[in-house]
Amino acid sequence: MQLFHAPRSCSVGIRILLEEIGVPYQLALVDLSTGQQREQAFLAVNPKGKVPALLRDDGTVLTEFQAIALWLAWSFPEAELLPREPDAAARVIEALEFIVGTVHMRGFVLAFMPGKFVSLSAAQEELRAHGLKVMSEGLRHVSKSLGEAQWLSGSRPSVADAALFYVTSWAKAFNMDLPVKLNAFFDRMLKRPSVIRAINASFN
Ligand SMILES: N[C@@H](CCC(=O)N[C@@H](CS)C(=O)NCC(=O)O)C(=O)O
Q1: Which residues line ligand 1 at a C-beta cut-off of 6 Å?
Q2: Which domains does the chain have, with CATH numbers?
Q3: What is the per-residue pLDDT across 50-70, written as a single tens digit (0 to 9) for each?
Q4: Of the candidates 200, 202, 192, which has an alpha carbon nearest to the alpha carbon of residue 20?
Q5: How far is ligand 1, taken at its centre, from the CA of residue 32, in Å?
Q6: What is the pLDDT of residues 121-130, one digit of tens each?
Q7: How many whole angstroms from 173 Cα to the centroid of ligand 1?
Q8: In ligand 1, which atom is closest to the CA atom of 35?
Q9: Is the alpha carbon torsion for 31, 34, 36, 38 positive or negative?
């Protein structure tokens, strides 16, 4: 398999899952800062111009964080990235969708890239404030769901924990206050060999 990946982006979450599974894969780096995601070569892989994208062994490409994460979990069940019991699995998918769909897409994106949506600076400030609110309320909500558990799935890191890692790493990078439990979660993730391998190679 080949993961199309941008350092410091959400695709690090998929990289962590591949490392947790331990399956061989290649990395194709996409430089978002120079707009490589909008070049023809990458658009031929993912016409939406976004990472992550995963080229699978059958030659097909899967896009969208949640779809890739769940496909990996179902394809490599021995890695236990998703509980088998339906109710527990639904809770993990609920957290995954909230982290990617709301905290990332409606929080971080609006807070840090308001210029993608509106040009007037007053409007950008309004969007930024809204994004920051969504993001910090969202992270507080996730922290509550984590409760006293180490991982969102309870006993071991799941697809949702990989997503929580990348949003908490952004919060840290922007010096945002994180709920205590999410700080502890982030430190726990940083100690996992899969995360060490994933970020060493992506932050080079
Ligand atoms: N809905 C997509 C969003 C992915 C996404 O926003 N990726 C960002 C990096 S975190 C990206 O590729 N941005 C490049 C761009 O928008 O030009 C998913 O869940 O995979």
Answers
A1: 6, 9-10, 32, 37, 49-52, 64-65, 100
A2: 2-79 (3.40.30.10), 86-194 (1.20.1050.10)
A3: 999 999 999 999 999 999 999
A4: 192
A5: 10
A6: 999 999 999 9
A7: 18
A8: 17
A9: positive
